[in-house]
Amino acid sequence: xxxxxxxxxxxxxxxxxxxxxxxxxxxxxxxxxxxxxxxxxxxxxxxxxxxxxxxxxxxxxxxxxxxxxxxxxxxxxxxxxxxxxxxxxxxxxxxxxxxxxxxxxxxxxxxxxxxxxxxxxxxxxxxxxxxxxxxxxxxxxxxxxxxxxxxxxxxxxxxxxxxxxxxxxxxxxxxxxxxxxxxxxxxxxxxxxxxxxxxx
Length: 200
Hints:
The protein is α/β, with parallel strands linked by helices. It has 4 helices and 8 strands; from the N terminus they run αββααββββββα.
């Protein structure tokens, strides 16, 4: 009996923290037949759990690092922003495109022939942690919106994803940028799967 209760609790906990999606505008069918998307990323008004703002988060993390080793705080800030273009965005693109082996749907930055734009607006980042004896995966929330390049005010479809978790295989994910990049891979994988399934 105790074993059954434990399994039930484990199952309910996994459901509670699993990635979820909710359509905000339009319908999945509105994306049917679109084969290419210009990709843009937006990090405006980013929420960081336990902090009032991204600025407060950076101040705290920089101060703690500078206290241990002067100068490392600024390096952390630089990498925090650089990781977006260098790690998160390429990971999203790679993860999405590999779900379509024949290239039937493609996303990338500056696609010249694409008529539609896909905007990935990250609304929350939790970096997670791995200190050896204890670890938590990263997670992101994001709203993915689609509109015609020449009509950005008219969104034909948008969906919000929450709790896209990221972690490395075998627990080797001590770097926060790596963990977060895996959250973007998970987000792209789930969105590509939904897009393929729900536009048929």
